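Bench notes, afternoon.
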Amino acid sequence: MFAPPPTDPAGSVAAIVVTHESAAVIERCLVSLCEAAPRRGLEIRVVDNASCDDGPVRAARLIGAGGVVRLPSNRGFAAGVNAGLRAVSAPWRAVLNPDTVVAPGALDTLADLLESRPRAALVGPRVRGE
């Protein structure tokens, strides 16, 4: 397991990754998250929409069984996001697809930007490459 504990719970970031049949990509995503918020700390939840592959098992090996929320049926991306939001306590939240690879420090940077602009409700990163 590698998910670092929040270093500043008041400013930590939660990453919610919604999956379905995502075994081929979930490990790369979770490994990238390891360095995504080194200053603030990161709380990770993988919400699985009733996959038949071993994606949830792979995720649990990396972040612990408590970090994986398994839904009994595929209720879709939005329902997965809502289940993930209910499972985290960090004030800043990032919603990710399982094929996302996050650059080191990126979630720290996005949370900093939101804090510096109190009228902003959300930010999105630049998407590059794959």
